[in-house]
Design brief:
Blueprint: E1 8-13, E2 16-21, H1 25-47, H2 50-68, H3 77-90, H4 106-126, H5 133-154
Helix pairs in contact: 1-2, 1-4, 3-5, 4-5
């Protein structure tokens, strides 16, 4: 795959291979998905929340498959509903910024910041190519859910 040596790679759109520069928005998003999965695994391990982490990682695998072109159906509605319920149950309203390390678990706050960056990259990509709106909703809920987890883990 020596095309990568020249700063190019391939993803799929509509069943066809598309060659693009490695700084293409698709590769930016795929890199962010990959990084989020990595920090989720670390946070899950560090806090004893491997099952919770794995559940979110499963969704990221679907998102990566969709963005990379190999998956057409995304199926995140059940996870969106789950996160919304968890947020409703555990949200007490903070009224301002919280300090990592004091009011928030550092590991889950780190994951949250990476999730927010992925969401921003996905929004940018959605302006250039068709992205399932379910993905955008999922990523928005995910950062809220991770905020709740970071508070919960600290208490």
């Amino acid at each position: 795959t020596k095309a990568g040596d020249r700063g190019r790679s391939t993803y799929f759109r509509g069943g066809r291979a598309v060659g693009a520069d490695k700084d293409d928005g698709v590769f930016e998003v795929l890199g962010e998905v990959d990084e989020l999965a990595a920090v989720l695994a670390i946070a899950g391990k560090q806090t004893g929340e491997e099952k919770r982490s794995a559940r979110m990682t499963d969704c990221l695998v679907k998102i990566g498959g969709y963005v990379g072109g190999g998956q057409k159906e995304i199926g995140l509605n059940a996870e969106i509903e789950f996160m919304e319920e968890e947020i409703k149950k555990k949200s007490g309203g903070t009224g301002g910024f919280l300090r990592p390390g004091e009011e928030m678990d550092e590991w889950w706050n780190w994951v949250r910041t990476v999730a927010r960056r992925l969401e921003r990259r996905m929004v940018s990509l959605s302006k250039k190519t068709d992205i399932d709106k379910e993905i955008l909703v999922y990523l928005n809920r995910l950062s809220d859910y991770l905020f709740i987890i970071s508070q919960e883990s600290k208490s």
